[in-house]
Write a structure and sequence with these properties.
Residues 337-349 have a biased composition (Polar residues). One of its GO terms (molecular function) is catalytic activity. It holds the Pfam family CoA_transf_3. By secondary structure, the protein is an alpha/beta fold. The two termini are 35 Å apart. Strand 7 (224-228) and strand 8 form a beta hairpin. 33% of the residues are buried. The longest helix has 26 residues, at 154-179. The protein has two domains: 9-196 and 333-371, Rossmann fold; 224-309, formyl-coa transferase, domain 3, CATH 3.30.1540.10. The strands form three sheets. It has a six-stranded parallel β-sheet, with helices on both faces. It is built from 14 helices and eleven strands.
Amino acid sequence: MAGPLAGVKVVEMNAIGPAPFATMLLADMGAEVIRIDRQQSGFLNGDDSVIGRGRRSLVIDPRKPGATDVLLRLIDGADVLIEGFRPGVMERLGLGPEVCIARNPRLVYGRMTGWGQSGPLAQTAGHDLNYLAITGALHAMGHADRPPTPPLHLVGDMGGGAMFLAFGVVCALLEARRSGQGQVVDAAICDGAALLSTMYYEFKQGGQWTDRGENIFDGGAPFYGCYTCADGGFISIGSIEPQFYQQLLTLCQIDDPLFKNQWDRSLWPAQREKLQALFATRTRDQWCALLEGSDVCFAPVLDFSEAPAYAHSQARGAFMDSDGVSHPAPAPRLSRTPAQAGSKASNGQHSEEILRELGLDAAAIAALRETGAIA
């Protein structure tokens, strides 16, 4: 069954970071994607990578004679172009949005950067941690007695970057179907990560957010955090609501008066110390047997090797296996036009096939090989 984006044609200029992940999301939902690869694989998302699933691959060097003309012909028939280079790179290749949209007025031109297409830092190198640092979010992560803890690049690259790029592209596609006009989607990781922090800015302005490590969601609250068990495993507790907190106390047989006032922040350090001592008396599996499935808001903390085998994930088919590699399945779930993970393509696997679809004959393809435009 075709996915919801069936019929949408995407050209992806392969890069590192969140742009390939955003394109994977579109491909999972049924978009037809042609990935423009370099002759050597890129860092982390090169030849035959899981994130590269659902594409066909054309290896072509846009700096070589004849290559730009081929790419423009390919873009002429596309609905979406996605690139993740530093601002100005595509323009220097003759593939900037002004050129491409002039030729293909309905084109949605998705641009993925860390700092954005404009601003004093636009031409500066950076990584997820740096983009997150200027949003206020990084400062709020970690313990009070040490510098902020670098999170996995889920909040910046993948959440603030890839997800917002995919969202912006789909929004622009819907608008283009109504207006017949394409546009540029300027997706900056720092913008998206800042927007993800909206609730925390509201907390701050309402006096509900203080210093790092002293709040509900940053590990300050004893009823919202992770604890070490007797076997060295970890569990997570999220008993925020009073009724869930009361169930935690009941199931764990906690009758210490210290825990009667859940919201007295002055008691939190002592409460956390006692909870840590309690949770250290049993193994992770023993705590699962007692608390899992209750309204305590409980779950074991699983590592990447354990997560795919977890009963809930198994029941939902949350992970899949490709060539012996276990990885997350497409999401979210659509009832009538479900997403489907496509196969992985080696760099250049479909080069000749794609060039012939563009109308190039054997002589033209041979000429491109002669110039080094294609391998």
